[in-house]
């Protein structure tokens, strides 16, 4: 009888232990995967890693789940990650946003405020002592001009000035133009410094980034002048995949709109965030279509 009691006790202990293991396994299985966020720095500014660590915590606290932010070096990497669902949210340039939206159906959530406004412009800048004073002058003297665009996927550094120069009859693409030379520098910072140092005769740049570079003392505005300014463009959007639920979008907007930390804001050259919708980028969408950078449905 004692032997039977010991055996039953042993079996009971095994059963309890097994249930505890199963419970632990189930508990572990309920932990959510991190909410993945991708960021491309618009300029080389501030301590990006430290700022993104702070942003991770801010978003994680609001979503009540882990958040992982990955910094990308180019637009295409972010677009591909979103396309294959390796990312839940990303910081896009307006052009790459409308391209990715057309392909994957992503949704705009928020955008940044620069001097309290969600708008910026494309500038064409030249050295201060340049004889060029307008886009008309630039077109008339294009054969003498080495022109610098930024990243080929940039809205203000490529798409919008490219359309303006196309209307002037001096530019189609990097291989077909009337300039002495055309270069894509890859970033707004490089474009601004190259114009200041007279490496190129004219260049296209994001107005907000140009003004920030001047404010930070990285560019001397007495050595550079603006000869062309586009219509206003809606600022860079943060967007989510189309299958992200409305409640999560609401929480994300709440988190971004509450950000006051200057270390987070400064890396984007921003002083706050505001709500954004897909419709805010319709003008960019049509510009991309005009430039042959976007295939729209015929419906």
Automatic annotation (TrEMBL):
The keyword Cytoplasm does not apply. Keywords: Signal. InterPro entries: PhnD. It comes from the Bacteria. Transmembrane segments: none annotated. Pfam families: Phosphonate-bd (PF12974). One of its GO terms (biological process) is transmembrane transport. One of its GO terms (cellular component) is ATP-binding cassette (ABC) transporter complex. PROSITE patterns: PROKAR_LIPOPROTEIN. Belongs to the phosphate/phosphite/phosphonate binding protein family. NCBIfam families: 3A0109s03R. This is Phosphonate ABC transporter substrate-binding protein. It comes from Paludifilum halophilum. The lineage of its organism: Bacteria, Bacillati, Bacillota, Bacilli, Bacillales.
């Amino acid at each position: 009888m004692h032997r039977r009691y010991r055996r039953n006790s042993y079996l009971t202990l095994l059963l309890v232990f097994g249930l505890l293991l199963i419970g632990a396994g189930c508990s572990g299985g309920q932990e959510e995967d991190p909410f993945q966020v991708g960021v491309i720095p618009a300029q080389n500014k501030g301590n990006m890693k430290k700022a993104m660590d702070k942003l991770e915590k801010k978003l994680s606290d609001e979503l009540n789940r882990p958040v992982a932010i990955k910094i990308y070096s180019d637009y295409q990497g972010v677009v591909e990650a979103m396309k294959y669902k390796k990312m839940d949210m990303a910081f896009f340039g307006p052009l790459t946003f409308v391209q990715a939206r057309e392909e994957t159906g992503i949704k705009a959530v928020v955008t940044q405020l620069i001097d309290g406004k969600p708008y910026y412009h494309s500038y064409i800048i030249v050295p201060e002592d340049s004889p060029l004073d307008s886009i008309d002058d630039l077109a008339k003297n294009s054969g003498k001009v080495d022109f610098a665009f930024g990243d080929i996927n940039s809205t203000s550094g490529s798409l919008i000035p490219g359309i303006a120069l196309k209307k002037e009859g001096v530019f189609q693409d990097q291989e077909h133009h009337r300039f002495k030379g055309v270069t894509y520098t890859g970033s707004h910072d490089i474009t601004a410094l190259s114009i200041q140092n007279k490496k190129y005769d004219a260049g296209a740049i994001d107005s907000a980034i140009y003004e920030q570079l001047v404010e930070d003392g990285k560019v001397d505005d007495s050595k550079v002048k603006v000869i062309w300014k586009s219509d206003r463009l809606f600022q860079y959007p943060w967007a989510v995949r189309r299958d992200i639920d409305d409640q999560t979008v609401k929480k994300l907007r709440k988190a971004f709109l509450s950000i006051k930390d200057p270390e987070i804001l400064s890396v984007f050259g921003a002083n706050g965030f505001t709500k954004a919708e897909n419709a805010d980028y319709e003008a960019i969408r049509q510009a991309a279509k005009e430039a042959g950078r976007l295939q729209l449905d015929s419906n």
